[in-house]
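User: Quick sanity check before I run a bigger batch. Here is a single chain. Can you write out its predicted 3D structure?
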Amino acid sequence: MAQQLAGVEKLPGTYPFTHERSLNGLRLNRFLHRLIEPAWRERFLQSPQSLYAEAGLSEEEQQLLNARDWRGLIQYGASFFLLEKMGAVVGVSNLHIYAAMRGQTLEAFQQTRNQQVTYSVAGKR
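Assistant: Done. Predicted structure follows.
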């Protein structure tokens, strides 16, 4: 695996989900995975701080979640697929998340695409 990842850090915007990153994000990913539970989603929307404390999230993890720092969450070790779940819960489209991960607005991001789409599983809030 090391040979396959050699030099990847030189590619801008590339954050491989390595074993180390996976272990770092384990608690956060367990928290995000629970967003599949309706009661957990509701509590997340109503009182995130108490839920963070219950889940034992670190101050850094809480700050990343509160700021909706999508790129920071990926760099920390959050699973991309779980961030899509969170986006759906908070009403942020996948495309907005992708754009934020590139440090762009949605409009600037869409200019890099062949098609101008606005699909999402996120509901309107």
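The radius of gyration is 15 Å.

User: Great, the batch can go ahead then.
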